[in-house]
Every structure is written in structure tokens, then in C-alpha cells.
Amino acid sequence: RTEAYFPDREVDSVCPYCGVGCQLTYNVKDDKLLYVTGKAGPANESRLCVKGRFGFDYVSNPQRLTQPLVRKDGVPKRADDLVDPANPWTHFRVATWEEAMERAAAGLVKVRDRDGPRALAGFGSAKGSNEEAYLFQKLVRTGFGSNNVDHCTRLCHASSVAALLEGVGSAAVTATFNECKNSDVIVVIGANPTENHPVAATFFKQAAKRGTKLIIMDPRGTAMKRHAWKMMQFKNGTDVAMLNGLLNVIITEKLYDQQYVQTYTEDFEKLAESVKPFTPEEMSPICGIEPDVLREVARTFARAESAIIFWGMGVSQHTHGTDNARCLIALSLICGQVGRPGTGLHPLRGQNNVQGASDAGLIPMFFPDYKSVENSEIRAKYEAAWGVTLDPKRGKTVVEIMDAIHADEIKGMYIMGENPAMSDPDLNHARGALAHLEHLVVQDIFLTETASYADVILPASAWPEKNGTVTNTNRQVQMGRAAIPLPGEARQDLWIIQDLAQRIGCDWNYTDVSQVFTEMSSLMPALANISWDRVAREDHVTYPVDGPDVSGRDVVFDKGFPREGGVAKLVATRYTAPDEVPDAEYPFILSTGRQLEHWHTGSMTRRATVLDALEPTAIAQLSRGTISKLGIQPGDMVRVSTRRGTVSLAARQDDAVPDGVVFIPFAYVEAAANLLTNPALDPFGKIPEFKFCAAKVERDEPI
Ligand code: SF4
């Protein structure tokens, strides 16, 4: 090793990718990131996956935005006109910060004053800090004047949040994932942690090696099945049938915890009555799991001393996503598998700060801490704190906002760090909406697909360039620290938000990020006893925490739930088919998701050298049987179509995928999976059905 490879500084921070929230150390030389090492954080114990360890050089990619851009006069916006980020000059020109901010603010004010506050909307980001999320939602609520604010939680766990708030009165996990070390049984359903929460997966595998019974429930035979005591590969979209089959066995055979049910739950009778007809024999043909297996798993789960359930977007991204989560909550509660070591309910959160951004109120129905915007008493508290009159009506969600743009109800938007032109379902519709906006301000580190439709583009800060807190899937509030300077004229997101807020009439004068944290936590009882200084000193604090000098609680709800009477609610569900089922014209099932090397819409990881070298090409994962039936070889091109669009991409043989199913990662703009997906929504969480729609797969003949 030469001198060039020795860092001159080490800066401790948190991984910018998934919700596991691994702590890491940036090793810096001459203000550049040299390499990254794992730090002994509570979630990762020094481990990192390939993204955390090698996916950091996106920050110095030549495509970083370093100057504000404004749309050139006379260049129209068209839904099918994506700008080449390497050559934005076809559509944009450089502006000074003053010109860009004035133009950004003037367009928003014009719409607000002419068409009313609800004609504006904002998408914040789960990739920024808690402080940024808090300020962003405050800007929309107090500066725009409506609750039209949302972010990508709507596309990942909104249904889980709806079910958890209804069932146990809290939207966060009841136990950290590390609690699996104390579990006799671990259930992982609708999740592929090896790819999506890789460091969490290592803890599950270690527990399995020590003898814990690992039960995997998934339509795909995920990599974790090698470690499983039982793999239940149920048919896509039949979660409710399978889970009701389990509930039927547990209740019929009186395996449930009668004392726990009596003390800590309500509506057990309704649940018991509802699941009576859902015998294993009735549910088996629907879900594809043998009755004996349903019985064996139900008995094992119910009799376990301690059992914990983890779930991912295979559960949540359905039109019945909330029902799926309700079933899991009921399963856990009737067996008394909550509130003790090794037990719990844990939706594995996706983005690095999706828990924190949701907690901070970046959602249209809640102020910070999940306080309803429609409750006048609560609203009065926030009006007093923020010094304005607030909109009493809940705002629109992500997909509803796109519909409202097409209906000319919403005409201006501010989008910070989100990429709906890649992440929304039915992209032709979503891109058409973005192109239809009268005024769009995009704040980001790259010229994303969404920025193609912008009137003003504001160059922002990457995660290793900023100070701020983030909250991971375990409820651990952790400190991110700036390791390197901002490139060119790029600015801190926090100060861009404040500048814009001031220009549209807000009287804000924050001078330090810690002031934002202090204001935010004063409005969030969940963050009691957590100060900025404490997080800076301890690197992480788990909420809830009972005092300034004690540790936070890894397991909650040992003595009841934060609902009226302290009891949790059991909610009965019925199996309903997905919104769009295969037919003669579209005989396949399309499911979408992520892969290990790429994150979300790929805006960062496809600009990270190692990650993009590992997975450079858009792929469709197909079973050996499907590949053979199509008469193609792995690597050949296939055309995948749905009623909404067509993409062409390389076939990859993956025997984890069942016959008749095609799985496409959604990170690739050249074959964007979301051109195909169905925007039908879960009625409670308003989450689209990314995990199921009818599709056609054909050999793509070379031109
Ligand atoms: Fe980052 Fe998630 Fe990988 Fe940890 S598991 S290093 S948080 S991407």
C-alpha cells in the first residue's frame, strides 16, 4: 500500500441505503472517500453488505448536479421525453442560485395564490435526514397550506403502517430484528432479506444455525430457504388465504394464549367466527400449501416459547396489503407473541430513513408522531407551535396526487430526493402527470428521470456530505455526519428547504440542524429523552426511552398497547383475488422488486462503479420451465407486456421464480418495470399492487 491509500480522516456515519441502518466509517483522504468500513452499530455489529461497503463513489460521479438549472425558454415537457443526464443542455441552462430560487418560489406562489393551497403538493424523501423530512412537511403544511405531502413509504409499507396503527396503536416495529437471537421460531414472509436487508439476513441465518426454526413464506424460493426449517412457497397473492388457514388451526385446536387474548386484545370472537370456514382443506387449493403443512406450521408457531414475524413488501404491496398485515398481527397477538424477548412484529423497512420520515410527518394524514390532521385538538397544538392556521383535511397520497394532476386539481409540485418517474406504478400515467404540471421544482443530487420534467432543478447534498439523524427499521435514531464537502455550488438540502420556505412567506430562521431536531422532538412524544447531543454522543438511541440516562427499549408492549384500554385490536379478513389476474391474453404474473446490488430506482447505485459493474443490465427473472417453454436461452432478450406498456430485457434463469411468473427489478430506466405495473390501490394504505399484475412474456426477435 502506498501513501495514497491511507486515509487522513475517519468519519462515523450510517449507510445511505436500506432500513437496516448499518453504522459505518468513511475513510477520507484529501476530502475524498477512499473506502468504507463497518462500525459496531447496534443493528450491524460491524457488518456491511456490498452496497454499504462498495456503493459510495456515486457521490463523485461526473453526473452530480453542481449548479442550479432552469428549463430553457420554449422547451416543452413531454411524457416520453427523458433528458440525458450526461447532456442536460438540450433542455436546461445554468442559473444562479438567486435566479433559480426566485423562479422556484414564484411558480409555487403563483399556483397557490391563484388556485388555492391544495393545488400544490410535495414529495419529500426517505433518503434524507429526519430534520429534512420534518422541515419539508412543515413547508408544505405551513407554506403551501395543505396536507398534500407524501413520500415513498406510500409505495412500500403504507399498508403495514395502516394495519399496525389500527391493531397495536403504533406504526413502528415491536422488537428490533436483532431480537431474533432470542426466538424459537422466526417467520419471514413476503421478504427477501438476503438481497434487500442483507445484514439483517445474517442474523436470521445465524439464529437458524443455532437451532431456531426459520419458516420462510414466499411465492419465490428465496435464498434463505437453504436455512429454513420450513419453506412455504405459496401462490402469488394468496397470503390472506394461507394466513387465515393458520389462524383457523390455532383457534380450532385452542392453541392460542387464552389469558393473553383476554387481557390484551379485543374482538377475538369476531376473528374466531370469521376464520371458522377457512380450514386448511379449504385454503390449500387457493394458496397451494398442503393442509398438513399448514397444521404443522400453525402448531409450531403457536407452541413456540418465543416467535417473531418479519415481513417485507411481498406482504404490503398488494391491494390486500393491509389485510395481509392484519393477519400477521392477529397471528402474533392470539399466540401472545408480542412484548417479550424474542417475540414481535417487524415490517422490515425499506429505505434508510423511511421510518424516520414517516415518524416526522411526511405523510398526508398525519402530523409528526402519527397525529391525525383531522383532529381539531391536535391541529390546535400544531397551529400554536407553527403559528399558522392548518388545513383540516387530509392530503392526497402519491398515486392520488398523480391522478389529481391529470384532473387539473394539482398544478405545482416540489419534489426533493424522490423519483416518481421511475418508482410510481403505470409510469406512462405518472410521467404524463409530471409533464402536465404547470410548475415543478426538483431538488436532487442527479438529474433523475423526474428532473426531466422540472422547471427548476436545485443541486442538493449527498448523504456523506451532511449532518443529520436517521431512524432505522429497529427504531434506532442514529447520527449521520458530513465526511466530505459539497461539490461545486451544491447546497445542503436543509438550507434549500428553508430558503424556499422564506421566499414563499414562512418566517423561519434556523441556523443549525440541531435546532430543527429540538423543535421536531418537542412535538413528538416518541422522541422523549432523545436530544441531538445525546444522539451525537451515543451515535444511536432506540426509542421509546424512559429517561435521559437509560437505554431505549428493544422490545415494546410488554404491558399492553397504546390504544384505548391498552388492548390491541384483532381484525378479521377475507381472501380477495388481486386486482388484475392472468387471462388468455396476459397469462403470466408480473412481480417487481429490488436486487442486492441496486437500490430503488438506481439513481445512486447505477452510478456506483462496483455495483453497476456487478449488475449492469436490465433482467427479467424466469423459471427454467418458462425459459424452455419460450424456446429461448438465458441471456436472450424477452419482451414483457401488460395492459400498460412493454419493455424489452434479458432473460435470466432463476429457479426461485415459479413457472408462469416473471420478476423484474425496477432500477433500470432502459426497461423500467413500472411502465408495466398496476396502479390499483389498497383501500386503506393506498399502496399500489406492485407484486401482482397480468403480463405477457414473448421471445424478443432481434431487429
Ligand atoms: Fe447498507 Fe442495508 Fe447493506 Fe447495511 S444491509 S450495508 S444498511 S444496504
From TrEMBL:
Annotated protein name in UniProt: Putative formate dehydrogenase
Q: What is the lineage of its organism?
A: Bacteria, Pseudomonadati, Pseudomonadota, Alphaproteobacteria, Hyphomicrobiales
EC number(s)? 1.2.1.2
Q: Note the coiled coil stretches, chain numbering.
A: none
Keywords per UniProt: 4Fe-4S, Iron, Iron-sulfur, Metal-binding, Oxidoreductase, Repeat
In this chain the 4Fe-4S Mo/W bis-MGD-type domain maps to: 8-63
Give the GO molecular function terms.
Answer: 4 iron, 4 sulfur cluster binding; formate dehydrogenase (NAD+) activity; metal ion binding; molybdopterin cofactor binding; NADH dehydrogenase activity
Is rRNA-binding included in the keywords of this UniProt record? no
GO:BP terms for this protein?
A: formate metabolic process; respiratory electron transport chain
Give the family per the record.
Answer: In the C-terminal section; belongs to the prokaryotic molybdopterin-containing oxidoreductase family.
GO CC terms, sorted: membrane; oxidoreductase complex
